[in-house]
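P.,

For your records, the input lines for the assembly:
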Amino acid sequence: MKETDAAAPTDLAVRDENGHLNADWIQAVETAVKANDAEHVQELAGDLHAADSGELIETLSREDRVALVQLLGEGFDYTALTEMDEPVRLQLLEDLPPDAVAQGIGELESDDAVFILEDMEQAEQDMILAELPSVESSQLRRALEYPEDTAGRLVQTDFIALPPFWTVGQVIDYLRSATDLPERFYEIYVVDPGFRLLGAVSLDKLLATKRSKKISKIMEETRHLVRVNEDQEAVARKFERYNLVSLAVTDDADRLVGIITVDDIVDVIQEEAEEDMMGLAGVGDEEISDSVFETARSRITWLVVNVFTALLAATVISMFENTIDVMVALAVLMPIVASMGGNSGTQTMAVTVRAIATQDLNKRNLWRVLRRELLVGLMNGIGLGILIGIIAATWFANPELGVVIATAVLLNTVCSALFGLLVPMTLNRLGVDPALASSVFVTMITDVVGFFSFLFLAAWWFGLPF
Amino acid sequence: MKETDAAAPTDLAVRDENGHLNADWIQAVETAVKANDAEHVQELAGDLHAADSGELIETLSREDRVALVQLLGEGFDYTALTEMDEPVRLQLLEDLPPDAVAQGIGELESDDAVFILEDMEQAEQDMILAELPSVESSQLRRALEYPEDTAGRLVQTDFIALPPFWTVGQVIDYLRSATDLPERFYEIYVVDPGFRLLGAVSLDKLLATKRSKKISKIMEETRHLVRVNEDQEAVARKFERYNLVSLAVTDDADRLVGIITVDDIVDVIQEEAEEDMMGLAGVGDEEISDSVFETARSRITWLVVNVFTALLAATVISMFENTIDVMVALAVLMPIVASMGGNSGTQTMAVTVRAIATQDLNKRNLWRVLRRELLVGLMNGIGLGILIGIIAATWFANPELGVVIATAVLLNTVCSALFGLLVPMTLNRLGVDPALASSVFVTMITDVVGFFSFLFLAAWWFGLPF
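Structure tokens returned:
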């Protein structure tokens, strides 16, 4: 029962109807934290889901974050650390006493513990692992040895594995009497004496089967199992494709190492699509809570690369200085040609990058897709060319200039379709992430082709010097 | 048992080690389909997961798709229709005999049936609904009445709901004897006589509890329930935040309407992140299997909008025709200034659009984020300005020109940070999807500011006419 107290409300909703954290509630928590009122803090924030407390912590100031965790004491669930941005998490881990952190992490599920540990400095990581019981710390050490972004890092080692000769009744009796069951589970795994995976029984199947039946009779052979070294994205693709909720992970000797559950995969899918989007926009792995310096440094790399592609475009223009000197209208119009190519190239590129990521583009349909993109480029190039041609001809009272710019727009649009597809495909074949590097090349090509085709055609048509 | 036959291999793996469909297997299916060999087709593709058969169908020609489905007959699971691109699905539905389609759809889970029906023409939809048993067709009609992209459209009406006074033993006995259980379930729902939702019991909890206990004692009150009219994205956010596997959906009178499972949410999350990315690149809801005409039409809208923003930039340049006439170097260098602003504006914009979508950006942190973006813009603007200034000064042997371009780059970079943040924020407040419309405005602003600041500063500094 919660007490009602006008001066210190404790019955505030955690989230408003839009799903945002309730500002009044945050305010109340903040006030209680600043007043060092442990009891009130616990009333307000003692029974939160990790996602809510993670987000709450993100909104507080650095001092208040530490104070909140300390005021909550035992009531603070370290799972919340997996639900906040990396910079906030690292800072908080630094600010909290190491033994409290070690204890908190020790209580987590193994996949959450790995998620937190993997971003820490080696020294801090070792310190925390040293404080844990040896079984747990060796499990975590093993998980941390798997390469980043592989299935091994997502593995949860808390699962139920039983021999095939058990009956359904035995399993149920065991589950009723066991005291150390995983917090949540969806399947029971069946293993041989060497811990090699034989199959899995989903709980609905288990519940709907008579007690006398052996679990080997109702288990499903795991068609979609995953190896520890498999890439996260490939694992995500399996969950998505086969509508899975959990999946067994085995080592090279077919031994069951642990399981991966869909909640971790939801995060992987989210991240993956986000990475493609950010990559295309020239932003790396960035969080809204990163520091100014960190952000500036990570973004400028991309911008500097773009300085050189812009310089290349400028060099093309400088080849036609004399042409422009005679006909300044060209300088006015030339960015239109480049920008049209850039925009249509970006369209093709985005579709291609996404299709590569979702495995919708492959050798079988490459030619069909290429033909389609070229035809789309041709159709849109003709449409845009005519529109821009008419505008330019009218503006400068020069129909021939209209024809020249229309032709250049058409050329550049078709080129942009071709390279918008081929650049990401080629990068992918070369093992370079197409989301990261495609934009630079495509923009470079559409700029160069745009400026060159327009200025060259104009110089040739009007017989201008260059 | 599968027969082995060298001439007609049936033991080919469906997927290769990269997770792509096995090309040899596709070839074998194609050959069998063309040979009209029903038995062999069934051996090869009769027992596929819907995801695999959906993808297989996508790779075949239009005629072979229909032939495959007909050769598989009863063995074809219409769930596969939910696993293929919309254009392929619509074409196939058109090509198949309507009564076969109606029968196939009648066997689907309600959420899958809705997914297929919602994209069909009204007339076809009615025809199929008319062929279904009245209970099913009225359920589907009701689901189709919910607005698109709401929870109601994702609802699965196949679930288990029981009264609170049942014991665990009764529940288990019921599950063992029932013949019409849902294909897969993760929770049992507890309802009152008016079908109002009281709570849910997860299967792991049910299995770990003694037979004599009442389910009302072990059920969890559903903290995270969803209304039929709630937006899909809000639902997805709940699954993601609270690591859910299934969620009850209620109507306005708190009655249990159905459930949503995580596999549908995985698709929503995927789509949502993809939409943001495609939106920023100026591509709408497009599939790689859309027709040329369809694609061209959907893309050109965006390109035409961009013609007018490019014209605005051209108008700015034309104000300085006389300036350029005197100093052609300006025409060579001006695209660099515009392009730097465009690139850094895109970075800020992508981060902002994503932060809005994931609810990481709100009133509380807006000022902090704005300050951060401006500082990042300032730092990178200074860095880029110096770099480009030195290059320009050297290239044209004109140090003053270096100072002018450096200043313009700095100005445009800071502006781009400001508007890269404010444009999506403002659009979002106005109820316009920031992913769709931000690019146009940000590019327009960075182009105009880029060209104007550089040409104006140059004209003023060197005392040129304009």
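Two observations worth noting. Residues 160 and 188 of chain A are 5 Å apart (CA to CA). The mean pLDDT of chain A is 89.

Regards
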